[in-house]
Amino acid sequence: MNAVKPMVLVTGGAGYIGSHTLIALAEANYDFIVYDNLCNSSKESLNRVEKIIGKSIKFQEGDIRDADCLERLFTTYNIDSVIHFAGLKAVGESVEKPIEYFDNNVNGTLVLLSVMKKYNCKQIVFSSSATVYGDPATTPIKEDFPLSATNPYGRSKLFIEEILRDVFVSDNEFKIVLLRYFNPVGSHSSGTIGEDPNGIPNNLMPFIAQTAVGKRECLSVFGGDYDTKDGTGVRDYIHVVDLALGHVKALDYFTSETSISPDETRVPFPKTNPLTVNLGTGNGYSVLDMLKAFERASEKKVAYKIVPRRAGDIAKCFADPSYAKKMLDWEAKKSIDEMCEDSWRWQENNPDGYQNPT
Ligand code: NAD
Ligand code: WQD
């Protein structure tokens, strides 16, 4: 059996991606503590992760903007690295509440970084997003493409990336990985944890799932006239379990001096910038591809209608994931069918998400 590794602080660990990452961490024998203010999640997700991993989870309820509460954690535990998921993520809401978004996401990250520095914890994996590429001129998207943002949520990610680049330059002891997620979907194969959006889902997959289970009547497909194979938007959907494994690879990276790709010549880590990688599959699927795949997985008909484009949407967004393979020896393995089957298992077993647990 492997020796237990040092403690990882997981901010936002009760949320959708965080809860799946806890399982990957436990399987890789990382010890961790979850810090979350539960503003967009429920403690029930952690209860369910405990059942999956077969052990109890250390959890502290708190806000990343609360320096005193964070400091108490750093004095109690020997925290050696941080995976920083905590943040608000609804694009539309960010347009209505930019101050709240910048305060929560940007200010929260600054408080976290100050406390980390004070306690000499200098390893952080940050949840960035493909949204920082704005509307890319071409696809697939590589990490050195120009960056831009079209809404306050996206700008908060861009600002945090910039802050982390400056922190990296200012202190050569800092090790930083920026993970740019494409479109996370799916659930753990147990069907006991998953994405649990508040109210009407903004994202495609939960909307399709809720339509299949009978909670919504009809999917509105935003735009049928894009320059794509069937006129609907194309995205790089990635199974959340694959995504979770990317975080373990990022932590492993902290303990090695070169890339962990086993095959070719080992590549030294970048010296001038944080390691920045896309986490996507490299495949672009349209809205209608996803709908058909979900119908196959659920054996349900999903009613849809084509409606005008959604403001701010782009035609195509999918990753070139080769740098993640080279630097982290990570690649997505799960198919679109597994994404839909797992998402359906969660939705069918938990039509009300974490409410009314059975
Ligand atoms: P989520 O809302 O399910 O999880 C975020 C967690 O952070 C929640 O549990 C919430 O309660 C917590 N949180 C928010 N603000 C906090 C604060 N101030 N203090 C403490 N906890 C706080 O979202 P998710 O889908 O799991 O996303 C995780 C991260 O990944 C976010 O930073 C998000 O922006 C980023 N991301 C998500 C997607 C996506 O499509 N889901 C894509 C790219 C990037
Ligand atoms: C996917 C496709 C829609 C809903 C968003 C954020 C991004 C990132 C991931 C955090 C698009 C279409 C959707 C619906 C539809 N989050 N669609 N009907 O827009 O690629 O990315 O989530 O970082 O920042 O912007 O994801 O799931 O909303 O949309 O037709 O009811 O599905 O037009 O083509 P998106 P999405």
Summarize the structure.
The chain contains 11 helices and 14 strands. With 358 residues, the protein is an alpha/beta fold.
Q: What is the helix fraction of residues, given as a range?
A: 25-40%
> Which geometry do the CA atoms define?
globular
Instruction: List the secondary-structure elements in sequence, H or E.
Output: EHEHEHEHHEHEEHEEEHEEHEEHH
CATH top level assignment of the domain at 5-184 and 237-280 and 318-332: Alpha Beta
> Could you tell me the mean pLDDT?
95
Number of helices: 11
Distance between the termini: 35 Å
Bound molecules: nicotinamide-adenine-dinucleotide, UDP-4-deoxy-4-formamido-beta-L-arabinopyranose
Radius of gyration: 20 Å
Strand content: 15-25%
CATH architectural designation of the domain at 5-184 and 237-280 and 318-332: 3-Layer(aba) Sandwich
Structural class: alpha/beta
The overall strand count is 14
Identify the CATH homologous superfamily of the domain at 5-184 and 237-280 and 318-332: NAD(P)-binding Rossmann-like Domain
Residue windows where pLDDT falls under 50 for at least 5 positions: none
Query: Can you summarize the main beta sheet?
Result: 7 strands, parallel
CATH topology grouping of the domain at 5-184 and 237-280 and 318-332: Rossmann fold
